[in-house]
Q: What sequence folds into this?
């Protein structure tokens, strides 16, 4: 339906459980110019608020959905086209879309997570995209594959991108063995074997960054490149109170202030975000797993594993991305890194920089992938 | 895409997974196993409404059918609990509890207290509550307030499939007697339920919806009626906070008081009769501890002080519903203290 001259903006699917989103606010008025990457409209889901961007240059011709309106995934939000396209053509496009495409829910529903048994543990992962040099996304402590909800699909347009749940996390097995970083690194290597992924780009966030770095050090030939986002293991400092707090807190009211430290903008922490983490923490085995992992991860207020002195040995091209306003692991850990490592600091972003500045992070990762393919 | 189960299936899954995990968990009750001489699952009733269906085929003699003798089998379950098992005993309708009150509130509820903390009674009594089933006065009551009154008993009244599974697993693992009230109208309700085992702690109310104008405090099926009501109210510009108690004993006072401190206006919705009820209990709690925050009198929406009628039209009239809840919310949200003062001077 989309022609060369008319571009549609539709409701994206952020995360596995999203079925619809609510239009919060239009960030661009009708008749205004937009370029590729302009944030056009703010959308709120049960879990999170994010921005939908234009993928093309042109004029925002029509705000199809109104503020406050619920729109199913794939539903039409806006139309972008040059002035050479007449209003009638835009009208016909909008009407045609409603009749022909908005009801098609199945199109966006075909991705489903899979499970694989690795070393006696059942691990969940989600694959999006096909071909190319594959990418593996590794979440951080208490996270899961949904932490990449603003990134996964965007990175997977030209290649296969996998996101997995580490042991003790998401819907993977809650058995974390001795709870060590070595166990996580070993499990990721075994998981790569299980999926016959011989050489991959690794993208790790926080504790997942330490896992990525560990794999790059141990099996350099398997790691095409490493993108470390707000990564652990580059210095001893960490908000140990946060780590202890998220492990201990059992009620919404206790948990929320800790989660607010993850973002530069604490209003990003929705009810559902807190709720989902609480739900996760209630699952059998999770409190034990988190407590075990956290004790191996942080001791006496400091990170236990610091790979800074080993960075020179990392053979894979590496980039480091950090939010300047990170309250969990200071962005100063991105300073004074060995020369070949490129460093990108993003202003006004906290620890969950891949959510807060999804567009910038996606662009940085994509161009790094292209360079290092 | 998320995995969904009905309320009924969620309870069945909790029983199944706990029986698989812990050999000391047994199920006792009328018809819970199946008709006499049933071969496997095929002829099994699995409870009067089929909640325990399939367990007999899997766990054999750990699922015990009983005669129609509530006082005997409730007593047996309590005795078994004190000697090392974790029985989940089903007493069809809470209306029948009367015949075994001694075992429940004079024995089970008192053991820990009277034996110096040394005796534990990890029994769960599952029972159905609720009107709207055309089941008349002896099969339709909601008697959780009677059990909430007794120290030593824990009372659980879930409203969603997710909560039903997590709270039942918590109940089975709890070392005190727990009465688990299942609203029979909720059995077909579908909702997201994880496959994994999980527990929901007692004494934690769920803020189902946030709002700054009026707090609705409710439980069981009335959570859903309240949610229907707040949609219409939001259109009128009244934003309600809806709190699902989940457990009436222990009671999450903190969540209730926090909410009322910010809204100052309260409607308590309870399907049970109004005297000496959860609704009056909560009203008293708020009047004593949140008096300064209240901007309007506390309003209760309950059934009238009558038995549940059998006639369809009367039963419909008897039961609180979204419309009655909405009109109570309007009343408290429009209430202005100065007008009340002016009219009395």
A:
């Amino acid at each position: 339906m989309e022609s060369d001259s008319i571009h549609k903006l539709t409701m994206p699917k952020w995360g596995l459980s999203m079925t619809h989103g609510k239009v919060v606010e239009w960030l661009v008025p009708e008749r205004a110019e937009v370029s590729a990457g302009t944030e056009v409209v703010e959308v709120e889901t049960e879990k999170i608020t994010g921005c939908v961007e234009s993928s093309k240059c042109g004029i925002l011709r029509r705000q199809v959905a109104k503020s406050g309106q619920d729109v199913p995934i794939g539903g039409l939000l806006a139309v972008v086209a040059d002035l050479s396209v007449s209003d009638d053509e835009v009208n016909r496009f909008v009407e045609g879309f409603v009749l022909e495409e908005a009801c098609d829910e199945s199109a966006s529903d075909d991705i489903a997570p899979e499970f694989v048994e690795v070393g006696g543990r059942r691990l969940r992962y989600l694959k999006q995209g096909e071909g190319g040099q594959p990418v593996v996304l590794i979440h951080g402590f208490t996270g899961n594959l949904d932490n990449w909800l603003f990134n996964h699909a965007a990175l997977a347009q030209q290649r296969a991108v996998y996101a997995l749940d580490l042991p003790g996390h998401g819907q993977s097995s809650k058995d974390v063995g001795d709870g060590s970083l070595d166990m996580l690194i070993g499990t990721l290597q075994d998981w790569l074997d299980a999926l016959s992924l011989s050489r991959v780009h690794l993208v790790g966030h926080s504790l997942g960054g330490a896992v990525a770095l560990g794999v790059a050090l141990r099996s350099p030939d398997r790691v095409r490149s490493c993108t470390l986002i707000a990564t652990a293991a580059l210095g001893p400092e960490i908000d140990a109170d946060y780590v202890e707090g998220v492990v201990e807190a059992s009620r919404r009211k206790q948990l929320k202030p800790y989660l607010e430290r993850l973002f530069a903008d604490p209003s990003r922490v929705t009810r559902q975000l807190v709720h989902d983490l609480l739900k996760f923490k209630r699952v059998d085995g999770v409190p034990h797993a988190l407590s075990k992992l956290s004790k191996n991860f942080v001791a006496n207020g400091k990170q236990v594993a610091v790979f800074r002195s080993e960075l020179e040995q990392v053979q894979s091209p590496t980039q480091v991305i950090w939010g300047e306003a990170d309250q969990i692991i200071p962005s100063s850990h991105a300073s004074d890194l060995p020369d070949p490592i490129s460093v990108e600091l993003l202003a006004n972003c906290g620890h969950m920089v891949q959510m807060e500045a999804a567009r910038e992070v996606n662009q940085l990762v994509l161009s790094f992938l292209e360079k290092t393919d | 895409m998320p995995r969904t189960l009905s309320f009924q299936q969620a309870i069945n899954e909790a029983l199944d997974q706990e029986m698989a995990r812990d050999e000391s968990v047994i199920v006792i009750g009328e018809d819970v196993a199946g008709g006499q001489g049933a071969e496997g699952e095929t002829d099994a009733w699995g409870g009067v409404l089929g909640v325990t269906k399939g367990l007999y085929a899997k766990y054999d003699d750990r699922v015990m059918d009983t005669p129609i003798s509530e006082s005997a089998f409730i007593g047996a379950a309590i005795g078994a609990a004190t000697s090392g098992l974790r029985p989940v005993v089903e007493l069809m309708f809470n209306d029948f509890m009367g015949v075994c009150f001694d075992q429940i509130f004079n024995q089970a509820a008192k053991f820990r207290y009277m034996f110096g903390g040394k005796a534990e009674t990890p029994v769960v009594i599952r029972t159905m509550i609720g009107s709207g089933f055309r089941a008349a006065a002896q099969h339709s009551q909601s008697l959780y307030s009677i059990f909430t009154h007794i120290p030593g008993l824990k009372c659980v009244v879930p409203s969603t499939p997710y909560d039903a599974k997590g709270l039942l697993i918590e109940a089975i693992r709890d070392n005190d007697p727990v009465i688990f009230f299942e609203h029979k109208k909720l059995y077909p309700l579908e909702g997201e339920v994880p496959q994994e085992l999980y527990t929901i702690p007692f004494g934690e109310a769920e803020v189902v919806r946030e709002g700054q104008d009026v707090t609705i405090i409710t439980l069981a099926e009335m959570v859903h009626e309240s949610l229907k009501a707040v949609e219409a109210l939001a259109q009128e510009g009244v934003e309600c906070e809806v709190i699902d108690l989940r457990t009436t004993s222990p009671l999450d006072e903190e969540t209730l008081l926090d909410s009322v401190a910010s809204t100052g206006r309260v409607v308590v919705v309870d399907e049970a009769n109004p005297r000496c009820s959860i609704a009056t209990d909560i009203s008293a709690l708020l009047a004593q501890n949140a008096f300064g925050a209240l901007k309007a009198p506390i309003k209760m929406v309950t059934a009238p002080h009558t038995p549940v009628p059998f006639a369809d039209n009367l039963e419909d009239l008897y039961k609180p519903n979204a419309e009655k809840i909405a009109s109570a919310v309007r009343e408290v949200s429009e209430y202005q203290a100065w007008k009340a003062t002016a009219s009395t001077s």
